[in-house]
Specification:
By secondary structure, this protein is an alpha/beta fold. It folds into 2 domains: about 200 residues, inorganic pyrophosphatase (n-terminal core), CATH 3.90.1640.10; about 130 residues, Diaminopimelate Epimerase, Chain A, domain 1 (Roll). It is about 40% helix and about 15% strand. Strands 3-2-1-4-5-6 form a 6-stranded parallel β-sheet, with helices on both faces. The longest helix has 16 residues. The radius of gyration is 20 Å and the shape is globular.
């Protein structure tokens, strides 16, 4: 295990935690497994320390993450502003988790930045901005949850976390690595896992909860998207899948049922890039862009240049503010511009 803070940073972190009474933990828009798992693990840990803790996310998160311990207490800002804003305004410390820039909180951003209370960033994305008083950023790590594992280790607390905390951390790491199939070659990742297993988690049950608990609509959706909606570009070793809100309604798809679809085309021999376009259910005229790749193709570079986004080399996301037809044209333009890396 690694020490990720200097002595001065560790002292600063501990002092901020000790001084706080009302802590708000925030994650990025469209929170994924790492965002929810990391925030909930921190919530459980700080609650044991006697803090009043609330997890706040910008918008809804996938149904398949609602089993996580404490998920029922997560506050969603969008459409619940009058409930969330007083909680945020009363916070005397913020933990900004799994995001590197305040803009990734979208509608929640202004509310959080309006409160001058200290902010601590705990993240693993590239190029963190300086809106927090203490930045704990490790882009070399597989998930924000791994950063938290090392942080707790340095504080002498990793061996004493509860099963609920360990469950949230393991689920977060598992989600951000595709069940440890990418971005998880470092031996220390499995050292982290050994600590979590020793806290009594059931990793098999966690895997089933996340990856093998499908609704009937989800099963039918996979067939529909792969057979009807997937377009392959063999010469460019790329694929595009699109999904509209009209189709969502037709198939009875719930929030989270599309999770992981973007990874499936990469199982095709020779495929290097998969792009999944889905209309936003909460913002008309917006299309969410998910990108996955293999080997050295830079999804994050493509996402930043063409889709107002970013992320990791092999897993990134972004948004387009246009119709689906216009989004498809933009994706084609992006793929053509990277043809020299895809062929």
């Amino acid at each position: 295990m690694e020490k990720i803070l200097t002595e001065e940073e560790q002292s600063r972190f501990s002092q901020l935690i000790d001084d706080a009474k009302n802590v708000v933990i925030c994650a990025h828009v469209s929170p994924d497994g790492d965002a929810i798992g990391s925030t909930l693990a921190l919530k459980h840990w700080l609650t044991r320390k006697g803090k009043q803790v609330t997890v706040v996310v910008p918008n809804i998160f996938p149904d398949f993450l609602h089993w996580m311990p404490g998920a029922e207490d997560v506050k969603v800002y969008l459409k619940h502003e009058k409930v969330v804003e007083p909680i945020v305004a009363q916070a005397d410390l913020f933990l900004i988790t799994d995001l590197n820039d305040s803009s990734r909180m979208q509608e929640l951003e202004a509310c959080v930045l309006a409160n001058p209370a200290p902010k601590i960033m705990i993240d693993h994305h590239l190029n963190p901005t300086d809106f927090c008083q203490l930045v704990i950023s490790r882009p070399d790590m597989c998930a924000s949850a791994e950063v938290i594992c090392h942080l707790l280790y340095q504080l002498g607390e990793l061996e004493h976390i509860t099963a609920d905390e360990a469950t949230c951390l393991y689920a977060a790491m598992m989600c951000d690595t595709g069940a440890f199939t990418f971005n998880s070659n470092r031996a220390v990742v499995y050292e982290c896992i050994s600590y979590l297993l020793n806290r009594g988690i059931d990793k098999d049950r966690i895997y089933r909860n996340v990856f093998w608990t499908y609704s009937l609509a989800r099963m039918r959706l996979m067939g529909y998207l792969l057979y009807v909606k997937m377009e392959t570009l063999p010469g460019l070793h790329a694929s595009i899948i699109t999904f509209t809100n009209q189709e969502r309604k037709m198939l009875g798809v719930k929030n989270g049922d599309t999770e992981g679809i973007v990874n499936m085309p990469l199982q095709i021999s020779g495929m290097r890039l998969s792009v999944f376009l889905s209309e936003d259910t909460e913002h008309a005229g917006e299309v969410k862009v998910s990108l996955r790749s293999v080997d050295d193709f830079p999804c994050n570079d493509m996402s930043a240049r063409f889709f107002n986004g970013g992320g990791h080399k092999n897993a990134s996301g972004g948004r387009l503010y246009c119709s689906m037809d216009e989004a498809i044209l933009k994706v084609r333009e992006a793929i053509e511009s990277y043809a020299h890396l895809l062929k």
